[in-house]
Amino acid sequence: MTKKIVFLGCGSMGEAILTGLLAAGTPPQAVTVTVRRPERAEELAHSHGVTALASNEDSSANTLAVAGAGVVILGVKPVGTVALCREIAAELEPGAVVISVAAAVSLAQLEGALRPGQPVVRSMPNTPLRVGRGVVALSAGSHAGEAQLAAAHEIFDGSGVVLDIPEEQQDAVSAISGSGPAYAFYLAEAMAAAAVDFGLAPAVAQVLARETVAGAGLMLAEPGADPATLRRGVTSPNGTTEQAIATFDREGLPGIVLAGARAAAARAAQITQELSAQ
Length: 278
Description:
Blueprint: E1 5-8, H1 12-23, E2 31-35, H2 38-48, E3 51-54, H3 61-66, E4 71-74, H4 78-88, E5 97-100, H5 107-113, E6 120-124, E7 134-140, H6 146-157, E8 160-164, H7 170-178, H8 180-197, H9 202-220, H10 227-234, H11 240-251, H12 253-276
Parallel strand pairs: 1-2, 1-4, 2-3, 4-5, 5-6, 7-8
Antiparallel strand pairs: 6-7
GO molecular function, one term: pyrroline-5-carboxylate reductase activity
Family: Belongs to the pyrroline-5-carboxylate reductase family.
Protein name: Pyrroline-5-carboxylate reductase
């Protein structure tokens, strides 16, 4: 991909995507980034070699950036995404694909804020993109064809696995993979707390929990890995692990995870409605 690529907003998620994109071979000179603060712009330019503009210095930074762009990634928070679309709409190339990474902002909301016919792709990435182990779900808008969807795939291919899904499944994806890293971190916290309860030093507890969860994640990343099969491989009959798993089942851990995911998906749908009312 050699056409100009623009990131409007570049927080931790945007920088993770940017890092993967550059690692996959996109030349830095093909990328322009806009952020609010000049200090952040300078940091990104120095770290990645891209062109970085600060809107606090130039209020027209976003519209200047998107001129001539083939791909525009919207990296601001959900509450500001539709307003950003309205701001840049008139300056976009008709065939430029606009990719949103904002949770809960629907394709209809994005398309309604842009010029008629503008290709739009909605994405749900997650934070492991930062280490090249992310997963991204893409939903194409009504004017995004195979070429635009392929361009969106190229943006994320260097950072993880990319899946195509219907938009109605985006809230579910948000609840599983979007929020999911926090679930794994929460598990590691609980494991470390249990280790401290056994009398282990907090520093030792942190290492045990962190490396165990990280190592298990790497095993899951192996080709063909299945979580149930891996779990059974560690669970010897009448052994210690079997007792732990039986206790988790008895205490309803699978149901707790399901309830949490449902709450996350419901909140995503609620945010969409709140944004529609603005």
